[in-house]
Amino acid sequence: MGHIADVTFLRQATIPPLPKTFEKIYSMANKFTGMENDTAQGPKVQPRGTRSVVYPNPLQAALQHYSSVGQQNPSQSQSQSQSQVLMANSKYEYVKSFEVEDEIMFPNLIVVRVGGRHFQRFSEVHEFEKPNDEKTLKLMSLCATSVLQEYPDIVFSFGFSDEYSFAFKQTTKFYQRRASKVASIIVSFFTSVYVTKWKEFFPEKELKYPPSFHARPIVCASLEVLQEYLAWRQQHCHITNQHNTCLWELVKSGKTEKEALDILKGTQKQERNELLFQQFGINYRTLPQMFRQGSCVLKTEVEGIVKYSENGTPIKRMRKDPTTVHSKNIAGRSFWNEHQSLLKELGVFTKDVGKINSDYIRSFLFESKLMASTWIVIRIDGCHFHRFSEVHDFEKPNDEQALNLMNSCAVAVLQEFPDVVFSYGVSDEYSFVLKKDSQFCQRKARYTLGIFQADIQFGLEEKQNYGMFFMGSSVSLPNLCLSFFSIFTQLSAALIDSRISLASMLVADVPQFLSLIPDFLLIYHWNSFSKITYSNIVSIVVSFFTSVYVMNWKAFFPQKELKYCPAFDGRAVCYPSTEILRDYLAWRQVDCHINNQYNTCFWMLVKSGKSKSEAQRTLKGTQAQEKKEMLAWFGIDDYNALPVMFRQGSSVFQDGMVPDENGAACYKVIVEHCNIIEQSFWEEHPGILE
Fold this sequence. Notes:
This protein is α+β, with helices and mostly antiparallel strands.
């Protein structure tokens, strides 16, 4: 039976008002269609029998308008040429409409699970002990502890092997509960600590390449779901550790890995316990708790010295410090309810977990995909880098070494991930473009956002795929913004008697498609929209970028110690056409120019003796020409004579093939500082976006 939870099979329905996301999109488009008064009322339902739901459809006109604006000659508008801000706002900023809102709505509980990427290979290269390397596990535990210290809204963590799960307090407003921000920041900081603290645990081992992690948010609708999740992860810890202990004892006794795996195939818990005891004299229950049960990090109140009085007397206060504990049943009432911090921030477990609910596990494992046949852009931004730059004494307004460090990270990303064909960066941000047919991570975004789901037939196996509609019980229209923007999408729908077949059509308006389906089959609801979003693709790139940043720090700042661990956040946006992708990149370069010109003026004013607030007041409302005149007053007669990297940012891309250290051919990745707004750049490098 197909999923029909969000569909009511009636002949007629009342359509509720548009969600806020669509109100914003329609509002944007209405400026160009004069339909302001229609959208507030939501969609219009035609009289019964017409089988058609009609929306005001200004979005296509809006897209066409923006396209025409993008082709205008700047000389046509003198005010625009004098004010880059106006150009950025009116000409290119429409690309922001492709970003999706990904707030995890209250009262859902937020959990972020971080896991090692390709850690089997990483453990072999770095010669970790099998089946458990105690130093590695302690390093992972330190990373988890550091995360709880850094982010007070995280109140509990559980981990084993190469993974850790972090639970936020129920009332958290951490980064406005935006899934992309939350998950990417956690995995980035976790990675940063892992690389930074490596030498403390492995003083004799050099990191041979940057380790990286992936992350995903788990949304728990209730405390009961969280309890099931924790039980599931600890059960997985036990099963995995017991299996691996048997495997490596068999290998140590002379078996090959394949032979050992064949012996263990199909064995149950008791059989594995007997194998360990009878063949190797190992009582599984006596193995270290950290191996068998995993590690919990939670916050407990302790008394600590916060300062000293004038006469030297210590002044003590109660504070919450992370503590690592072990328990055979972290989802049990006896463990959970004895910790006041968990009861206060998350709630009380009212019963113990027996058999884990398989439906919950399905939700924990759910993975969706990004829109097919679109350009994926992963944008990374430094977290609180204003403070980071001050603590590490970066030069103002631009620190060339800091920018080159960022560039080295971008180069490493392109070398690590061949599907990334272009990147553009400025200051503490970088945007990475994946090729349009990329199957990186199988385009798994690990999120459900803006899914409009309507069952048009039940009784067939349910199948879903972003951007594709298969014969079956479920039709999913993800990211309706893109669908409204006239993307060609392959549609195939089997109706009740298979007499109607939809092949390939232009989706200008979703209700246009729905109107072709008999109304006694389909009524749809706005409550099919989910607000859970984050990309596995994003987390891997953010983590790898962070890892390289920390590892390369000394190469660019040999005289500076890294005083604390940096972190980055990331997001993924899909752009349906090359033209819109180029407009996105143009938007970032225009923003680079605007910010650099402003910051150059700002720091010149500060160096001349003004306070920062005075400098801000002086610059408020100034236009590009006024800033040029201000710079001339400071002796900078030609703004364009400033280093091109400061003014135009950095472009990183593949350029031809070169032999690697083993003699095999690989792509040569180069860094250039060029004008990517102009057509000439793309004509000189046609292979980048082909």
